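Note to self: the last two entries modelled the partners one at a time, which told us nothing about the interface. This time every component goes in together.
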Amino acid sequence: MDRATTETKLINGYQHEFPLVPRPFQRIGESLGMDEDEVLALLRDLQDRGALARIGAVVSPRTIGTSTLAAMTVPPDRLEDVAALVSAFPEVNHNYEREHDINLWFVVAAPSENDVATVLHNIERRTGLEVIGLPMLDSYHIDLGFRLPCG
Amino acid sequence: MWVSETDRELLAEIEGGLPLVRDPYAEIGRRIGLSEADVIDRLRALVDRGVIKRFGLVVRHRELGYLANAMVVWDVPDDLVQTIGQRAGTYPFVTLCYRRPRRLPRWPYNLFCMIHGRDRITVREQIARLNAETGLDDYDHAVLFSRRRFKQCGAQYGIRTAPEAA
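The predicted structure of the combined assembly is written out below.
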């Protein structure tokens, strides 16, 4: 199996149900025909390239803490500064420029609704710009797993 | 869903990701005073109860060559949004489908889908298909492609460390 195929198998196979056993990388290696240290090296390489953010848990919304999507209209000449200010909050986990009049979009996650509201308020106070909060009301589909096509 | 203090501590400890060592659960356990078996059992129980929605590799789309990322939003009548949203959520290229509040007059949309693709042409084709096949064509919509990514990391709820007062 060439490297690209191995990577694809690793990515497609282990976004869900990562082995909960004492030596998970050995278990993965068995399915890919590699040894434990080769799997670890491949994962470190994916991490160095930025393709792997982490191996971890995606927690169901609102079981631990709460979060909201938020958005702002930022004048283009202030966008970098405002984006940096927003990103500096540890409660902000995604922060993107999007092509719209409302051009800065980010997610705020914190232990309580009150904490989330405080962050939004602080961003408004420090930028002098309005922040629109758009919390999830219903989830019809959440599966941030991602399938790479083979070949 | 109730989550014990110990489980919260465990989730906080793995928020940054499992360490890339041969025995990651033992390592996590050492940091918070649990045995390896206890860490594994607790994680398995959290998965079984649905507290952990999924456990595994968290990837970044752009670095994998998925350069186009669109947030597509529609203004769907409230009595139809659930039916249509559930239908839209079944498409493999829709990674997330939520209902959110409108904020009139500035923001008239209540249904949100995230779509990732190799390039914009592909994503536009997927959106056209979604519109045509789910009945979403009837409603006002907007496509917000991402331009710059300023920050992307796992949700950090600051379970263990209180959020910094800013």
